[in-house]
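Q: I'm building a small set of examples for a reading group on sequence design. Run inverse folding on the following structure and report the sequence directly after it, with nothing in between.
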């Protein structure tokens, strides 16, 4: 017996029930955005991280490394640094692997401190489990060496192989060296120039930028203004001209209520739906129903007449029935909010993938006031 369930979805509307084990009636939806600290939604201009890259050699692998010419060449280069010359034909080890190294050098990090390093195979090594990264330089885009990495590789996956089967868990060809890179050169952080500092919003928005400037001005006088949706410029108050760090520390704790554009983000691959609290729905009608088609296969024996010379055969008979389950049609007023949307979709028994289809239908009908982002 096989079942084909065809979802029949038309434009949608919503009514209320509790969401799972959470009773939405007991939750406070009067505020869309909470009060947050300025330091949590902004970055200080001039204080930025830098990306580092490099190429290295991981040794100590149990026969799971590279056999590529690249691995042979790197092995010969490394041994040449120690005064040992190897012929290409004499290098036949599978206990090493060529890897790409990546790291992020955060701001304010000084020489002597350590950072984490990501390690990824570049050749045909099957796993890095048990390997050790040999000392390798990490360079920035300017070609300068900013850190040197070395240490045992921590792999989050594993691989096992037998005579007739192989099992792999997670990604054994990628790993990390926690604290494996020692910083050799710092990146200057010039965040205070000419008695000014600037804040960069992580989520640019004109309203949020203006609220940040207003909150700073209420505390320190008229010293800040919103240059655009993503930048707030501040003239350091007199007592902080020589101490910009103290100003940033005190100012960062001021709380504001950010404003975000109305967005609905959906991921059709895994059925994830995230709706912002600012999303509004115009007056709309929503219908939801299911058409269930059942296809049954029955085996039938066909027996020929006696002495006819025929052969007994088994044939299949197909029976198809269709039932349309009772759907629901609900009307929503123009004041519909994301809370109402969640409650109604759950009352209709809609699954996440159904909700995505419903949201797309509402958006096409022009009733969704916000940006629908398909990830």
């Amino acid at each position: 017996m096989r079942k084909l369930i065809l979802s029949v979805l038309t434009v949608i509307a919503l009514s209320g029930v509790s969401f799972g084990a959470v009773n939405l009636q007991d939750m406070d939806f009067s505020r869309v955005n909470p009060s947050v600290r300025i330091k949590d939604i902004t970055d200080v201009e001039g204080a930025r991280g830098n990306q580092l890259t490099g190429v290295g050699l991981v040794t100590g692998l149990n026969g799971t490394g590279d056999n590529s010419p690249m691995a042979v060449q790197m092995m010969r280069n490394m041994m040449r640094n120690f005064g040992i010359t190897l012929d290409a034909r004499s290098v036949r080890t599978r206990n090493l692997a060529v890897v790409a190294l990546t790291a992020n050098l955060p701001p304010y990090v000084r020489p002597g401190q350590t950072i984490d390093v990501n390690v990824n195979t570049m050749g045909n090594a099957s796993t890095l489990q048990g390997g050790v990264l040999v000392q390798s330089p990490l360079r920035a885009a300017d070609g300068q060496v900013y850190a040197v990495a070395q240490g045992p590789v921590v792999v989050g996956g594993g691989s096992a192989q037998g005579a007739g089967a192989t099992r792999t868990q997670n990604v054994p060809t990628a790993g990390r060296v926690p604290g494996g890179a020692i910083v050799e050169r710092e990146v200057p952080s010039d965040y205070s120039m000419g008695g000014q500092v600037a804040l960069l919003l992580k989520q640019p928005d004109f309203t949020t930028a203006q609220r940040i400037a207003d909150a700073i001005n209420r505390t320190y006088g008229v010293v800040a203004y919103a240059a655009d949706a993503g930048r707030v410029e501040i003239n350091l108050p007199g007592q902080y001209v020589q101490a910009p760090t103290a100003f940033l520390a005190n100012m960062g704790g001021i709380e504001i209520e950010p404003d975000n554009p109305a967005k609905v983000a959906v991921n059709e691959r895994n059925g994830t739906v995230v709706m912002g609290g600012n999303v509004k729905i115009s007056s709309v009608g929503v219908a939801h129903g299911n058409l269930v088609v059942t296809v049954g296969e029955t085996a039938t024996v066909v027996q020929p007449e006696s002495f006819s010379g025929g052969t007994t055969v088994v044939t299949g008979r197909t029976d198809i029935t269709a039932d349309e389950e009772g759907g629901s049609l609900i009307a929503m007023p123009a004041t519909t909010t994301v809370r109402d949307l969640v409650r109604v979709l759950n009352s209709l028994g809609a699954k996440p993938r159904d909700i995505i289809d419903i949201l797309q239908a509402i958006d096409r009908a022009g009733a969704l006031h916000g940006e629908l982002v398909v990830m």
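Residues 2-32+263-374 form one domain.
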